Amino acid sequence: MAIAPLPTAAVRRSGFRRVEPTFYIFLVPTLILFTLAITLPAVMGIVLSFTNSVGFGTFRFVGLTNYQAAFSDPSILQAYGFTFLFAVITVVVVNLVAFLLAVSLTARIKARTALRTTFVVPMVISGIVIAYVFSYLFGTSVPALATALGVGPLEQSMLATPDLALVALVIVAAWQAIPSALLIYIAGLLSIPSEVYEAASLDGAGGWRQLRTITMPLVAGYIVINVILGFKGFLNVYDIIVGLTGGGPGTSTVSVAMSIFNGFSGGDYAYQMANATIFFIIAVVIALLQLRFTRGKATF
Amino acid sequence: MSPDQHPPARAASTFTRRGFLAGAGALGSGLALAACGAPTGSSPTTISFYLSKPEVIPYFHRLISTYHSEQDKVRVVLDSSSNVPADFVRNRPPDLGCWNYNFAVAEFVNHGALSDLRDTPQARSINPALWPLMRQTADYPGRISAIPYSVMAEGVIYNRDIFARHGVSVPTTWSELVGVCERLTAAGVTPFFNTYADTWTIAQGMFDYTIGGMVDVAAFFGGLKQEGTHVGPSSATSFSRDLAAPMARMVQLAQYSNKDAASRHYGDGNTAFAQGKAAMYLQGPWALGQIALTSPHLNLGMFPLPVTENPSDLKVRVNVDLALWIPEASPRKAAARDFMAWLMQPRINDTYNNDNDGFGSRIDAPAPTNPALAGLRKYYSGGDFYLGPSQLIPASIPVANYAQAIVLGSSPASQLALLDADWSRYAIRVA
After folding, report:
1. In 3D, which of B356, B349, B391 has the Cα closest to residue B127?
2. Residue A263's domain is classified under what CATH number?
3. Where does B28-139 have alpha helices with state H?
4. Interface mutation target, options A58, A67, A271, chain B, most CBs of B under 10 Å
5. Closest to B398 (Cβ–Cβ): which among A51, A61, A251?
6. Is pLDDT at A10 greater than 50 in this prediction?
7. Residue A75 and residue B422: Cβ atoms within 8 Å?
8. Which residues of A touch B395 (CB under 8 A)?
9. CA distance B224 to B389
10. For residue range B251-289, what is the model confidence (pLDDT) as tens digits?
11. Which residues touch A284 (CB under 8 Å, ≥6 apart)?
12. Pick from B247, B173, B235, B259: which is nearest to B210 by CA?
């Protein structure tokens, strides 16, 4: 690995020129690609959110009109409400289940490796495939089972009632997201030295006490990472909703990402760009929070 | 584009995306983003051809091979998976579009993104009765932005054998229809097979049929446009006011549905109907081919859904299932026109329509010969048709989801009020 020369007072004055050019060579292609593929379109999108563009042809600047309209549009507000509710519930479910699974899968149980592999399988299946499989389960298998067992509320498809549709979506999203959270928790648990537990047992701490006062504090950093990354990911939920409910029943499960994307075909390009800009700002705030938290816990 | 066809002069404060892109491109100068090679003299011109109808992709692949074998100036690449609105946004639209003529194309038409086809012989060959329908969907004044290729007429598909077995005949009034449903239900037969999990099937079916059977669709949307941004409970025309009666009919019809409609998709519906699990199915002729995949020899017929007590109110829902258009931004318009002219020849166009149960768009086009469509023929030829109202509402208003909410038990009044509010907000945005 190339190392820059030791900084002396003389070198430091002309510091920039003395940096090994290899670093720049590594950086430049990515920087160009990132600028062209991410930054430039994003900036254009933000600029267009202040216009009345339909995506092509002529347009003129309309100031904050789109933003005002977005904040007073019940369908957009409903999409935000649904998306945040969905993200919060899913984050809690995913982390609770993943943490408990991780604790079990790091204990000295039989077939540990085989079980870990099994639990990670959902991670490699694409969201839309998962959605179609679950769509069949919720639409056909679950009602058939419920009818046979006499469970009244589930005899209709869960996806056809607004509250149960949310539950169904959380189940599917959690099923898909638990593996990655699980892997992070396993890594976290394995990083705790076994001496700590041995010392605790000698002092008479039981399993629950060890979990609460040793394991939890020592993996706190991992919990923060999982919660924030998960929350950010669930806010962007799109494919499983398209595959499972298409936003229905009615519009009760339309997510923010879906409403933004629909702007493409609906002639609402600039309007949904404004929506996307608002969503982007929210994502940036969450990312800053994440930076703050993870920096604070840098020594876990 | 010739000088007399220019859109109205741009105001000084308007910008074009192209100009915007040019500016952005200057930022990344030296980085060749795109190099659109101009076609050279001798080699064939390759055009991109976008098709919106998944059912006929193999059919068009065969047509394109035939076209290739008949000439060597133009090569056609069929695409049915690209996101066409996004391609317009990128200023790289298809050279020739063959699309369902609905709200999805409306934006391109209304903003003049499609080139004028007035001067083509194909435009002159079209049945004049279709132009008002085309204009109702979208219009750019003074232009013919698209040429209809195939018109679909939709109504109730029914299983003749089930009808005969239970001694019921095709209803022509609402009470007769209710009578048929009651009789079938009493005999243990499901009257309608519905597929609410695919919201479009509700929108094009029950929603559009009940409205089109009761309300003058063109007048209704004309009235909405007049109201502009003030559509609501107090306006002379509104969804709440004008569509309450049709929605009440829709709620009543939904009672005669299969019990698991909420979780059934379009594909499930085709299979179930083919297996004789219901007597009627609210779909267009595109479903006939899909039903035939399961039961090729089912004895099927079609009739317009009766919604009033007057048989002379009977109308069929139509939609311009495919229309051809050439974007302004296409650098290969001449080649695109060549393929369009080839597709519009009677030997190709009529065969296509007959093979795919479509009604022809040319003045001299024959009616399709499929006996299942016989019950709709006289309505189509008599001009007793309407455009699906759900196709005239901008795509950013989720009308199919609202229709789904109604058939799943929401109050029609609340969903119609949402439509009113969405319509007004949309009118403000595009004003």
Report:
1. B349
2. 1.10.3720.10
3. 57-70, 84-89, 103-110, 121-124, 131-137
4. A58
5. A251
6. no
7. yes
8. 262, 265-267
9. 12
10. 999 999 999 999 899 999 999 999 999 999 999 999 998
11. none
12. B247
Structural domains in chain A (count):
1
Phi then psi for A197, rounded to 5 degrees?
-65, -40
* Cβ contact, residue pair A35, B103, below 8 Å: no
pLDDT higher than threshold 90 for residue B15:
no
Is residue B423 within 8 A of residue B228, CB to CB? The reply is no
Distance between CA A95 and CA B106 in Å, rounded? 46
Per DSSP, which regions of A155-243 are E strands?
none
Q: What is the dihedral of CA A47, A51, A54, A57, to 10 degrees?
A: -90
How many of the other CB atoms lie within 10 Å of CB of A101?
A: 19
Cα dihedral A135, B185, B305, B308 in deg (nearest 10): -130
CA distances from B30 to B26, B27, B33 (A): 8, 9, 9
pLDDT per position as a tens digit, B309-324: 999 999 999 999 999 9
> Among the CATH numbers 3.40.190.10, 3.10.50.40, 2.60.120.260, 3.90.1150.10, which is that of B44-152+319-378?
3.40.190.10
B369-406: pLDDT as tens digits: 999 999 999 999 888 999 999 999 988 899 999 999 99
* pLDDT of residue B6 exceeding 70: no
Using an 8 Å CB-CB cutoff, list chain A residues near B415. 250
For chain B, where do the domains classified as CATH 3.40.190.10 start and end? 44-152+319-378, 153-317+386-430
Contacts of B104 in chain A (CB under 8 A): 265
CB B353 within 8 A of CB B281: no
Q: Looking at the domain assignment, is residue A223 inside a domain? A: yes
**CATH superfamily membership of B153-317+386-430:** Periplasmic binding protein-like II (3.40.190.10)
Task: List chain B residues with CB under 8 Å of A40.
Answer: 24, 27-28
In angstroms, the separation between the Cα of residue A125 and the nearest Cα of chain B is: 22
How far apart are the CA of B111 and the nearest CA of chain A, in angstroms? 7
Residues of chain B with C-beta less than 8 angstroms from the C-beta of A29: none
Report yes or no: A78 at the B interface, CB cutoff 8 Å. Answer: no
CB proximity A143 to B under 8 Å: yes
**Domain range for A183:** 74-296
Per-residue pLDDT, A144: 87
Answer for the pair A55, B88: CB distance below 8 angstroms, yes or no: yes
Looking at this predicted complex, what is its ipTM? Answer: 0.80
Mean pLDDT of the region A102-118: 86
Return the structure tokens found at A79.
Answer: 């999409």
CB contact under 8 A, B31 and A54: no
Name the residue in chain A with its Cα closest to that of B27: A40
Residue B348, pLDDT score = 95
